[in-house]
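User: Modeling request: complex.
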Amino acid sequence: MEANKVLDAKGLACPMPIVKTKKAINDLESGQVLEIHATDKGAKNDLTAWAKSGGHELIKHEEENGVLKFWIKKG
Amino acid sequence: MTVNAMTSKEVTNKVFNKEALFILDVRNESDFQDWKIEGENFEYLNIPYFELLDGVEGIIGKIPTDKEVLVVCAKEGSSVMVAEMLSDAGLTVSYLKGGMKAWSEHLEPVKVGDLKDGGEIYQFVRIGKGCLSYMVVSNGEAAIIDSTRMTDVYLEFAESIGAKITHVFDTHLHADHISGGRVIAEKTGATYWLPPKDATEVTFNYQPLEDGNDVEIGNVKINIHALYSPGHTIGSTSFIVDEKFLLSGDILFIDSIGRPDLAGLAQDWVGDLRESLYKRYRELSEDLVVLPAHFMIIEELNEDGSVAEKLGTLYSKNHGLNIEDEAEFRRMVTENLPPQPNSYQEIRETNMGKINPDDEKQREMEIGPNRCAVR
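Assistant: Request completed. Predicted assembly structure:
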C-alpha cells in the first residue's frame, strides 16, 4: 500500500505511538495515508479507537516479525 | 502541584477498607468496559488518553476536588502523562504505578485461620483478577494450592515465615490464569500434584492426585484430604485441610458456582457438577469454612479482605446450591453463560506445558477478569 508518510514508533511505549501519530497526521492533507510501525501491543486497540474518534480511517493493519503496521487515511 | 505514584498494594488497602476513590481510567472504552479496578466506594470516569492530548480543560469540571483521584492506564505511561496535565491545571492526583498490568499481578496475603495443632492458612488475594491461592503452613513446612504465575511472591513469603515449600497442588487444570505450580515445584524440589483426569495431555511429570489421598505438612500432621469433585473440569478436586477448611477450587464460590463449559464439554460435565454440589459437598460438615479459588464481585470480600464463608451458610444463601429442579440447574449452567476468559485455550495449553509463551505474552494472555463462575 502506498503511504504518503511513514512513522517509525518502534520501541516506544504508550502514549508515545499515538502522540507521534497525531503529530504526523497533522502534517498530512485529508485523504493522504500515514503508515505507522509500532511494537507496543496496546497500539492496536488504541490506534483503532483514536482513528475512529478523530474521524480518520484505519484502512489496514498487519503484524510482521513482532512489528505492528497500520495504515491510516486522514479524514 | 504533585503527582504521586500509588501502588497496587495501596489501592488494595482502599478496597479492603471500603475507602472512597475517584478513578480516572484513561484506557480505551472497550478495555475499560471489559475490566476495571473494582471497589465498593470507587467512582469512575473513563476518558481515553488519546482524547486528552490537546489538554484536560474539557474534563477538569468532572473531577472532584474533595476526593482522592487516581489516574489509571494499561501500563502507566499514559496515566503519568494525564496526571501531569491535571497537576499543571492545579489538581492533586496520583497515577497507578505499573498500571493495570501491575494491578492484575498484585497478590495480597491474608491470614484466614489457625490450624488445630499450630500452623496457619493464608489466602493470597489476586485482587485485580479475582484469583485466590493458598498457603498452608505447619512447623516449618508449607503447601501451596492453586498458585499464580507470580511465583516469587510465594517463595519470598515462605522464606519470610521460615517455611520450606514441600507440596504444591492445583485443584484442576486452570483456564483463566497460568499456574505457577510447576515452576515452584522445580525451584523448591516440592512435589507437584495434579488431578490425573485433567492432566492427560500434560508434557511434564507430576504426582497424580486421587480421591482420598492424604498429605501431611510439617511434623504436626496437618492433614490435607483430597475430595474428587468434578464439574468445572472432569478432574476437579477439592481439599479438606485440618478437618476445618474446604478448598473448593472452581466448583463452589461464595455467591456463585463453577461453570462447566471451559473445556468444551458443558453438557457432559453438568451432571458431575450437580452431583459434586448437591451430593458430595452435602455430606460434609456444615461447619467447614469454604475457601474458593475465585471471587467474582467485590461484595464477596469479608471485612479483612479475605474470601471465606461456612459451608452451611452457603447452602442457605448461595443461589446455585438451591435449585431443586435438575433441568433448571442444567439450563442455568449451560445457557446464557458469561463470556469465556480471555485466551482461555492458550492458557490451558500453557498449563499443560504444550506451549511456553514468554513473560510478556503470559501477562497479555491473562489480562481481564477470571469469569469462571455462573450466578
